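One thing: mind reviewing this one?
=====
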Amino acid sequence: MTTLPIVAHATPDDIIAWAHGRPVTVRQFLADVARLAAALPAGGHVFNACTDRYRFTVGLCAALLAGKPTLLPPSHTPGTVRQLLAFAPDTFCLHDQPDAAFDMPALYYHDGLAATARTANTATDGPVEIPQVPAAQVMAYVFTSGSTGTPVPHRKTWGAMAASARAAAQRLGLLDGRAWTLAGTVPPQHMFGLEATVMLALQGRAALVAAPAFYPADVSAALAAVPAPRALVSSPVHLRTLVQSGLAMPAADLVLCATAPLGRQLAAATEALFAAPLREIYGSTETGQLATRRTAQEDTWTLVPGVRLQARANAAGDDTETWAEGGHIEQPVPLGDAIVPLDAQRFLLHGRKADLLNIAGKRTSLGYLNHQLTAIDGVRDGAFFMPGDAHEGDPHGHVVRLVAVVVAPGVAPARLQQALRERIDPAFMPRPLYFAERLPRNAAGKLPREALAALVATLSGTQDRPAAPPPGFVIDAGHPAMAGHFPGHPIVPGVVLLDHAVLALGTALGRPLAIAQASMLKFLSPVRPGERVEVLHQAEAATGGAETIRFTLRSAGREVASGTLQLRGGAAQAEALPC
């Protein structure tokens, strides 16, 4: 039976953590683990909700020695707790907050519980036996939110997690003989936080910083309180907050980033802020860490030691999928990303396949659009959202439009829209664009789709009102054109219909339309004065990349006209938010 040590540090007096302003040695850590393992309740699974990173790590290792898998859900809401109990009815909660309340048996990990073991063992200078754990033992079940809202468990063995951490430590240069310290803004319950602030400390011979570091002042204090070399483990949303805060930061020796795509501009700004190289990590809950790159300088990803990528035909046989295998990956795993291999170790990443958009014959990804939005000066946070699953509109002619929500206090809507037009194709302009005080990100900085959808619904008011009718217009009998078209039998002239259709479209899209050409015009049925005319429209591709709009006019259930409008220069400048 293959076993691996619970820590990889060279001596029991090596520092494994910085907690409450003081160093914690491996000797003290193992005593705390043994003490807590003996105090754990009889339940077979542990829901580790500790917010202090050191106590979380002690709890993780205590559960490992007691043979109890740890459950790590995506949130700690009452609904999620009920789903954990449905998965494992013998679950109990380990927490370190006196006012925590979970609807399950619980153990409060307080100062006294740890101090007993620490006081009893700090004076001991004798040899310490490092516990060995079977590689095949299940260490944890890490849950993702799942497309149906039900958390999906991913089984993690001790051997796979330890091997992943050792490969990452080798790639990141942490095995250089120096005593590294890891401070993190990402919670340890998240897969990246677990790998990069807990497992990397245990198996990379590093020390973790116990106190949570979320706000800029917390991050500054956490780094300043520990010796070099030191690394900051964070996410793009946290790094953007740090860069925009204007607060000077202590120098670091390394910054690690994951959980969402990182743009080169933000990566460069982060390197300047911390005077340290930034390494972005690519991976997933299913696979763990797969590859790294220095984002400020390169687009190419390089696999961590032992991991391979293989292209395979998908189940339908009409496309290929990329699978990750080898190294710490116990079974081959399909990746949901568009990957272009360069050689056996290097590749380019073009974003998640589920995030790819095809509108008006043009392609992009939500990740690219989000990057362009958040790179605008004054934008603190932002995200695009595609309602439903439609990317090209519905069969009735109604167009499903991209929506965006932005956190940009003090930025004028017109200036923000102008900056977006300079960065993205007109077909992907958000209609509408909403402003919010904040986005509903979770503790890891991720933005769950269901949370963003709820925010968009709230901002649009669609929860409380019916869908708005299509834009339209009415030409009354007093219009000057009616007198001669035709006496006694007035019919709205085609040129008047076209003129009012353009005005209605401009109002609906929130910008005046500069028409370069109208083509394929058909007038199918006469329109009488006083009839309401509805304008249905859809953007489509055009030669040369100019924006075009196909429209249909309807009145009293019948089609009365149709055609295509080509816009001059893509679109005229707008000064108002789209409707």
